[in-house]
Specification:
The chain is mostly helical. The chain has a domain at about 1-50 and about 70-115. It is about 75% helix and about 5% strand. The protein has 2 helices and 2 strands, in the order αββα. The chain has a two-stranded antiparallel ribbon. α1 (about 1-40) packs antiparallel against α2. The longest helix has about 80 residues, at about 70-145. The chain is rod-shaped and about 115 Å long. The two termini are about 40 Å apart. The model has no long low-confidence stretch (mean pLDDT about 80).
């Protein structure tokens, strides 16, 4: 009876970890699918799109004029930044999904250890019963002789 009371918190913690890990895996997966395949939600803005005022850059006290206008450069940045944000979102999703799988693995291992302990105890009890029955048989045979 006491063993079940001691093992029960491990099983509860294992189930909680399993559910938390599953949630951590499902949420980014759902958002990723809705963004990439369905187009339901907008790409999250992880980084803000920078706006350049002019197409010059400073190098060691010298100003260099870039061979592209500021408007063209801003247009290129505006077109490419959603892809950058999507890439960052997917990278964060991969990190969250792998973390969720590790959490789920820990929960399953806690639950599995309890089952293995129960099986080992059952096998041990069966082994003790067999030993007791064999001893009783040998005593009966000795008494008959």
């Amino acid at each position: 009876m006491k063993r079940k009371i001691i093992e029960k918190p491990e099983k509860i913690v294992g189930c909680v970890l399993l559910v938390v890990g599953l949630i951590v895996v499902i949420i980014p997966t759902y958002f990723g699918i809705s963004i990439v395949f369905k187009g339901v939600s907008a790409i999250p803005k992880i980084l803000e799109t920078p706006v350049l005022s002019n197409a010059t850059t400073s190098m060691n006290n010298a100003t260099v004029l870039l061979p592209i206008s500021g408007a063209d450069l801003n247009e290129m940045i505006e077109k490419t930044f959603p892809a950058v944000n999507l890439g960052l979102f997917l990278a964060l999703s991969v990190i969250l999904i792998s973390a969720g799988s590790v959490i789920m693995g820990k929960g399953v291992s806690l639950i599995k250890e309890i089952k293995l302990k129960a099986v080992k105890e059952a096998v041990k009890d069966i082994g003790e019963e067999i030993e007791v029955k064999e001893k009783e048989k040998t005593k009966k045979q000795e008494n008959e002789d």
